[in-house]
Amino acid sequence: MESFPFKQQPGVSRRQIRELAELEFIPKAVNLVFIGPTGVRQNGTGVRALAEGFAERLSRAVHPRSGPVRRDVRFPRRPRLAQTHPTLGASRLPFIDEVGYLNLRPEQTNIFFKLMEERCGRKATLITTNLEYDQWARLLGNKDLTEALLSRLRHQCQTIRINGPSLREPQG
After folding, report:
1. Structural domain span for residue 27
2. Rounded to an integer, what is the distance from CA 112 to the centroid of its chain?
3. What is the pLDDT of residues 119-158, one digit of tens each?
4. Domain of residue 85, CATH code
5. Domain count across the chain
6. Which end of the chain is more exposed for a tag (fewer CB within 10 A), N or C?
7. CA 49, CA 83: separation in Å to the nearest integer?
8. What local confidence, expressed as pLDDT, does residue 16 receive?
9. DSSP-H helix ranges across the chain
10. What is the pLDDT of residues 156-167, one digit of tens each?
């Protein structure tokens, strides 16, 4: 957190980020959602949680092998998250990065919903996204399921919006 560029991201509360860096949200089962465009350093708290040993992995939202909403899942009719992703539901803090850059197939959306359903009020989840909540139905492809998923995700949640400029310098 010492390296977070507060001067370049003036809309971010230094106090809030420092409190989150204490990682007290994890035992309280509070979800964190960082919303902002690419390159604004949304994942600083997640990196800290990884370093402290809380987050088991940094996952891209759609990754062919390791992401929480995998492309290659064989999906039973009434899936339990433990059947499709045995470690994800039990993870102390899944860190799901870059939600919103790729559209999800129906089975991936179902897995994401099951993750939120099984963790709701019990365990924290950390998500970074470029989408405001009202745009998630476009990503997930099902308005009713999106409302149910967001209801679970936002039940105990802190949303941090980072709206500053990209911190990635063009090369060349």
Report:
1. 14-161
2. 10
3. 999 999 988 889 999 999 998 988 999 999 999 999 999 9
4. 3.40.50.300
5. 1
6. C
7. 26
8. 85
9. 14-21, 44-51, 81-84, 106-119, 136-140, 143-153
10. 999 988 887 777
